Amino acid sequence: MIRRSVLVLLPALAALAGCAQLPGDEDDAEHSGGDPSTKDSGQVADAEATATPAAAPPETGPCAGKAEGALACEGEGVVRCTGAGRAPEAVKTCLDIEHCEAGACAPACPKGEVYVPATGPAGFTMGKNLSAYGFGNRKSGYHGKGRADLPHKVVLTKPFCMDQTEVTAGAMKKCVEEKGCKAPQRTDRWITYPDKPDYPVNLVDYPMSKYYCEQYGKRLPTEAQWEWAATGGDGRSWPWGEEEPTCEHTDFTQSILVSPGGDSGCHGGGPSKVGTHRKGDKIWPNGPIHDLAGNVWEWVIDSYVPYSGKDEVDPVHERANIGTRVVRGGGWNRSGRGILAAFRGGAIWTYKVPGLGFRCVRNAKERDAAATQR
After folding, report:
1. Disulfide-capable partner of 192 in 147, 179, 196, 221 (CB 3.0 to 4.6 Å)?
2. Are residue 150 and residue 185 in the same domain, yes or no?
């Protein structure tokens, strides 16, 4: 009996053994049940959910460290930053008399020249409606026909660089020696060439003045450029403002003229050394311009014709059939009225006198694409 019982129990124990679990097997079963591939995909999903996104590459180039929408410089061009991973947008290219600095076009005139900005769309008013159109001396009694200076609005669309001083006798001597300029003839006691190198060159006619400017990549100013540079368009009477002129402001004749070429002026006759009368400077943000009133008259490029009274943009009035050119600023042998910033003088283009000289301007030009990169 005993032997048989043992035999009966063995199959039962064997059956129970097939269903038995060891301690801890419950947890393993919960975590390991199912397809092994299902287990791997769950781990990948968890990893993707918790991973830190890759950092964007650091901004390089002109917009490095700048916020989206900020302006920056790329060579000589102004660009707008558009955010990481995108190329900046071109805004504008600076002119050849400017350079890009801190996201803006800044003045870059050569030494000895002053940057004069454009007028902006509002422009400025030229003309006081005071001057008769015509020529004649006091004895003739001829007062001309009509008005030479009808008020009108002028807009200058581009900046320019203007010589800080009138062209000196020393500068003219260098041009004579190196670039074929014609030397002024020593026909007057007040001539400055060649013995007074720091004085304005005088006894130069229109062609001599024009030729000089062109040899240095410049030209004579237009009448509108000259007046804008002398006043800034605020209607002032003289380059320095409204204070009555004295010999601290300029070299001119304070009383009645002895004669057009007489022993007048603040120093007894003849012009002064350039830049002597600093109280009379016209001050621009980029620097002062000297002697725009008095010392010597200055040739400009325009023919002497009456203003039309109509609004103008970048006007140049050259007439091949008119031999008279505009002169501006007055000279040492002219009175306070003659040195008014708005006063229009006229001279035959071959005129050479001791009270007449010139200065040049450098007109702005567009850069080509290759020139925008430093």
Report:
1. 196
2. yes
pLDDT: which is higher, 1 or 362: 362
Residues 87 and 169 both lie in one domain: no
Helix (H, G, I), strand (E, B) or coil at 124: strand
Determine the average pLDDT of the residues in 208-218: 98
- The predicted model gives 111-138 an average pLDDT of 87
Q: How far apart are CA 210 and CA 167, in angstroms?
A: 12
DSSP line for 182-215: PPPP--STT--TTT-TTSBP-S--HHHHHHHHHH
Give the helix ranges, DSSP H, for the chain. 2-19, 25-32, 36-50, 169-179, 206-215, 223-231
pLDDT (tens digit, 9 = 90+) per residue, 76-86?
999 999 987 78
Q: What is the pLDDT of residues 323-343, one digit of tens each?
A: 999 999 999 988 888 899 999
pTM tops 0.85:
no
28 domain-assigned: no
Q: How far is CA 108 from CA 94, 206, 266, in A?
A: 10, 29, 35
Burial 209-229 (b: 16+ CB within 10 A, else e): bbebbeeeebbbbbbbbbbbb
Strand order in the sheet with 160-163: 113-116, 160-163, 361-363
pLDDT in tens, 219-230: 999 999 999 999
Examine the domain organization and report whether 83 and 120 are in the same domain: no
4-18, 41-55, 116-130: least confidently modelled range: 4-18
Helix (H) or strand (E) holding 326: strand 324-328
219: three-class secondary structure by DSSP: strand
| Contact of 208 with 233, CB cutoff 8 Å | no
List the alpha helices (DSSP H) in 64-205: 169-179
